[in-house]
């Protein structure tokens, strides 16, 4: 048997080599290309919430940004971005924007917390007893936060009111040295006074009835010129008493230095006695791209005063002058709400008349902190009101905001899980000197920062406080109302949004009772548990300037990129798959953490908070965390679409090989019949045929093993040894599958066949052939005479053209990715380079199959063609006949394949757009063209036919 097989293969060496080459090409291509099916794929797990929507569909964060809790339970706490500072570059943003299907990619860069000094006015007009020559009004303030559970009692302040004339420092000469006499509002110069503070001071001077002037010193370190937090200020609102001096004029009006403007020789009298103190409120500063933010949430449309940010906003630098240091100002827009739960409760009391003027600071405080005296009124105010008034005033007066030379960046909160499933927020040690003085004001310390911290804080110096560089501050150019932003609804909102304030309701009866059935809100502690959203927004173009002293953060300033996918409006299976495909491509291009927020749903989570330092008890609160139940992860998965294409390469090769083996069996029918007459059983005849193709398959497989590695290296594809060795069984299986049908046919050969000489499987009667009166008609008849062979050739080409049509549709009609449904499941198809290579290989093998069919047709009808030539047919007519057959065969395969590809693509997207039809027509034209080229091979064979010998045999 072995010798028999070997003799046959050697006897038909050319045909054997052709078959071996086909198997080798198909097997090698399959093994190498399958090395690329192991791709990065975004796997979506969990159940999507059908009834939710958000302003964006995908969230992109720095690699490793997911917390352990998020990775474990796919939960994201509200305002998680408040603890994410930088990590993404502008190049990352550009890559995300460039992903097909991305409609909007909006970056946000969290810069950090600073403090804003908000004026708190105390109107003491009605507290003054105008019958007294002098009096002291005591001001006792208690700050409340966190629904009144935290109480911060401030040291008392005092206002000294006298009917005696009071002299104030003349601010026309405010730049005079502090160690030399300075001019007062009476035009005379007075020496500095040692009130007991660290520096010499020029306090107000009371003019006594005898004409003498006596200084009215301040209390504590605040003995200088102003009540505004100044250089060296590290205290909070609770620390340090103070004394303010006012002159009650005979006309009932008041004179104070609070109303004394620089450049004026005297303080203008006022009708009401209003003393302003300042409360430090932390705010979060963030940067956005104005154009992207407008497209995402309609930021410009939410502007309620001034103007919106623009992409052209930059820092403005002003050089130093004789009386002013160099300035650097950057534009911001401010929210119309601070979302900070803090109030001030103040009680006024009038102390008995006593000596104030002439006492040093150390003696003043004991003299004033005795009995509280007679109640004289009270005041209550909300920090949120003061915030809006302050921002509006600064905007209306074209004034600067506060200095920004230092920011604080908090880290993430960590948790421990209690036995009942509650999360206990972990407290962290407080960092000393995280707040405090900078070159000018630094960061005044909000009083609630003495409460336990749930997040670590890091101080970032934006300006070198030891140098004489520019003074850096922000300036409001507009105000926006976050509740006017587009894209949210109360029903579907989930707390993933940049502008939404966090709120936590009581989760047990004790907590609900303590909170008064109201939600817990941020209280003004950057290290606290609840963090307010950004209060100030600036342009992303400003960030490199702000972080010029910190190159790493300047290079990667973006905290997150929020992505909206084109064509997605609400949930559907197709939209979900469209978002998944875009997210997968973003992850593949960037390697960043990518989460799908489409379908995110609120996931209430109970959190336990430790007791505070200002009276807040232990609380259990329920937060509306976000379940990104469409949680995603990057895994190594097989690209099934690519694998299908690679299998098609083997299928087309099997069709080509099966057709060739069938033709060989038909050629040997007489030989096989003789073997049957000699006693060979049917199984042995079938085994001989299978043995021949098995040898070809095995040799091709072994050759493919040797070719796979270098070819893969050349194409930069990773192919393991195990994958390469698979070439042998694949090639063998391919050859055996292709040879099964011909082998079974050979086994059924009847011994009587030995009595006939049959050239080919010519079907059709003479009557049918007489109807073919033209060359074209005869070509059509010739194809129908061998229907099996025609179907094999056309089918092989159709498979290749169908694959080409689908890939071309995805590439040209849908920009590389198409999303739709198949059998009720949402799927997406993304074209890769190897897919295109596989499709081209499939088409080429189909063309080889067409050429082989035409070759076999010419060979089997050689005598017939010789007869036509002898009867007067010209060479051109014979060539035209073969060309028509090749064209018709190509047309049949190309149209069938293009139609199938069009149907698959249309089924996938649910419609048949004109561009899809155009792609299908183009693919069909390509198929017909290359099939016509394939017809050249048999026309060459036609010219070499030995007409005389063939006619003699006939």
Which characteristics define this entry?
alpha+beta; 25 helices; Macrolide_Exporter_MacB; single chain; rod-shaped; 954 residues
Any overview of this molecule?
Its main location: membrane. Keywords: Cell membrane, Membrane, Transmembrane, Transmembrane helix. The chain crosses the membrane at residues 12-33, 643-665, 685-709, 721-741, 791-816, 836-856, 888-910, 916-942. It is a multi-pass membrane protein. It is found in: Cell membrane. The protein is an alpha+beta fold and 954 residues long. Among the domains are: 1-37 and 656-757, no CATH class; 41-113 and 409-470 and 489-636, no CATH class; 759-954, no CATH class. Helix content is 37%, strand content 22%. It contains 25 helices and 34 strands. The strands form 8 sheets. Strands 2, 4, 15, 16, 17, 18, 25, 27, 28 and 29 form a 10-stranded mixed β-sheet that branches. Strands 5, 6, 7, 13, 14, 19 and 20 form a 7-stranded mixed β-sheet that branches. Strands 3, 22, 23, 26, 30 and 31 form a 6-stranded mixed β-sheet that branches. Strand 13 (242-248) and strand 14 (254-255) form a beta hairpin. Helix 2 (13-34) packs antiparallel against helix 12 (640-667) and helix 19 crosses helix 23. The two termini are 34 Å apart.
- Quick one: overall form? rod-shaped
Q: Which spans of ≥5 residues are poorly predicted at pLDDT below 50?
A: 38-51, 222-233, 488-496, 629-639, 757-770, 813-829
| Helix-and-strand structural type | alpha+beta
Radius of gyration, in angstroms, nearest whole number? 44 Å
Share of β-strand residues: 15-25%
Oligomer: single chain
Describe the main β-sheet briefly: 10 strands, mixed
End-to-end CA span: 34 Å
Helical content stands at 25-40%
The average pLDDT value, as a whole number, equals: 76
């Amino acid at each position: 048997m072995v010798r028999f097989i070997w003799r046959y293969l050697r006897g038909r060496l050319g045909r054997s080599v052709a078959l071996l080459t086909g198997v080798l090409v198909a097997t090698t291509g399959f093994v190498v290309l399958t090395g690329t099916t192991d791709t990065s794929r975004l796997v979506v797990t969990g159940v999507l919430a059908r009834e939710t929507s958000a302003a964006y569909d995908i969230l992109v964060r720095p690699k490793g940004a997911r917390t352990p809790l998020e990775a474990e339970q796919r939960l994201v706490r509200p305002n998680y971005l408040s603890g994410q500072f930088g990590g993404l570059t502008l190049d990352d943003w550009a890559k995300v924007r460039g992903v097909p299907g991305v409609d909007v990619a909006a970056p946000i860069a969290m810069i950090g917390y600073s403090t804003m000094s908000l004026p708190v006015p105390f109107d003491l007009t009605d507290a003054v007893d105008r019958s007294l020559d002098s009096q002291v009004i005591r001001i006792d303030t208690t700050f409340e936060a966190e629904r009144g559970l935290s109480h911060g009692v401030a040291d008392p302040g005092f206002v000294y009111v006298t009917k005696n004339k009071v002299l104030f420092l003349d601010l026309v000469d405010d730049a005079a040295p502090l160690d030399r006499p300075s001019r007062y509002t009476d035009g005379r110069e007075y020496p500095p006074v040692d009130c007991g503070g660290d520096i010499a001071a020029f306090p107000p001077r009371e003019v006594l009835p005898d004409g003498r002037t006596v200084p009215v010193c301040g209390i504590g370190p605040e003995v200088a010129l102003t009540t505004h937090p100044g250089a060296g200020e590290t205290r909070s609102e609770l620390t340090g008493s103070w004394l303010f001096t006012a002159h009650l004029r005979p006309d009932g009006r008041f004179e104070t230095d609070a109303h004394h403007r620089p450049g004026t020789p005297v303080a203008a009298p006022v009708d009401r006695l209003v003393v302003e103190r300042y409360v430090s409120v932390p705010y979060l500063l963030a940067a956005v791209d104005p154009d992207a933010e407008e497209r995402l949430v309609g930021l410009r449309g939410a502007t309620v005063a001034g103007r919106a940010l623009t992409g052209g906003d930059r820092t403005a630098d002003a050089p130093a002058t004789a009386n002013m240091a160099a300035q650097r100002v950057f534009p911001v827009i401010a929210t119309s709400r601070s979302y900070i739960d803090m109030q001030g409760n103040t009680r006024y009391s009038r102390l008995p008349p006593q000596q104030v003027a002439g006492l040093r600071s150390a003696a003043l405080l004991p003299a004033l902190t005795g009995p509280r005296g007679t109640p004289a009124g009270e005041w209550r105010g909300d920090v949120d009101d003061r915030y809006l008034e302050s921002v509006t005033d600064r905007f209306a007066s074209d004034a600067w905001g506060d200095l920004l030379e230092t920011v604080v960046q908090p880290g993430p909160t960590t948790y421990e899980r209690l036995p009942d499933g509650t999360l206990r927020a972990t407290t962290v040690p407080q960092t000393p000197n995280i707040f405090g003085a900078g070159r000018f004001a630094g960061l005044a310390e909000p009083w609630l920062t003495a409460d336990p911290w749930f997040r670590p804080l890091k101080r970032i110096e934006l300006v070198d406080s030891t140098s004489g560089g520019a003074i850096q501050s922000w300036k409001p150019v507009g105000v926006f109302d976050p509740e006017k932003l587009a894209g949210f609804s109360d029903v579907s909102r989930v707390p993933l949004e940049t502008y939404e304030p966090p709120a936590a309701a009581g989760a047990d009866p004790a907590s609900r009772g303590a909170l008064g059935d109201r939600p817990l809100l941020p209280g003004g502690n950057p290290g606290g548990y609840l963090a307010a959203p950004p209060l100030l927004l600036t342009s992303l173009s400003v960030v490199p300037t702000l972080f010029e002293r910190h190159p790493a953060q300047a290079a990667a300033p973006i905290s997150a990129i929020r992505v909206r996918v084109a064509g997605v409006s609400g949930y559907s299976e197709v939209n979900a798959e469209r978002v998944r495909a875009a997210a997968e491509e973003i992850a593949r291009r960037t390697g960043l953490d990518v989460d799908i927020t489409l379908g995110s749903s609120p996931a209430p989570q109970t959190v336990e908070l430790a007791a505070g330092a200002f009276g807040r008890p232990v609380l259990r609160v329920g937060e509306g965390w976000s379940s990104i139940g469409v949680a995603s992860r990057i895994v190594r998965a097989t690209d099934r679409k690519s694998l299908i294409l690679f299998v098609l390469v083997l299928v087309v090769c099997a069709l080509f090989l099966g057709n060739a083996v069938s033709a060989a069996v038909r050629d040997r029918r007489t030989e096989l019949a003789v073997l049957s007459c000699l006693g060979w059983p049917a199984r042995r005849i079938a085994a001989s045929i299978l043995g021949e193709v098995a040898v070809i398959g095995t040799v091709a497989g072994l050759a493919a093993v040797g070719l796979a590695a270098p070819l893969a290296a050349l194409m930069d594809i990773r192919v393991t040894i195990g994958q390469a060795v698979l070439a042998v069984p694949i090639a063998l299986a391919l050859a055996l599958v292709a040879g099964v049908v011909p082998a079974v046919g050979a086994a059924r050969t009847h011994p009587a066949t030995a009595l006939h000489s049959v050239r080919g499987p010519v079907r059709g009667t003479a009557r049918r052939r007489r109807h073919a009166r033209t060359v074209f008609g005869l070509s059509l008849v010739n194809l129908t005479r061998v229907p099996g062979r025609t179907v094999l050739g056309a089918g092989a080409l159709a498979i290749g053209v169908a694959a080409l049509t689908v890939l071309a549709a995805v590439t040209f009609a849908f920009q590389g990715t198409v999303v739709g449904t198949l059998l009720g499941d949402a799927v997406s198809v993304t074209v890769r380079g190897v897919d295109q290579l596989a499709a081209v290989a499939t088409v080429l093998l189909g063309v080889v199959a067409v050429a082989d069919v035409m070759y076999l047709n010419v060979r089997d009808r050689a005598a017939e063609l010789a007869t036509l030539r002898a009867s007067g047919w010209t060479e051109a007519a014979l060539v035209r006949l073969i060309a028509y057959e090749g064209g018709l065969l190509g047309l049949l395969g190309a149209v069938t394949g293009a139609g199938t590809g069009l149907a698959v693509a249309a089924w996938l997207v649910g419609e048949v757009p004109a561009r899809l039809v155009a792609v299908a027509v183009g693919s069909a034209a390509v198929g017909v063209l290359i099939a016509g080229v394939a017809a050249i091979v048999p026309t060459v064979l036609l010219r070499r036919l030995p007409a005389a010998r063939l006619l003699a045999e006939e």
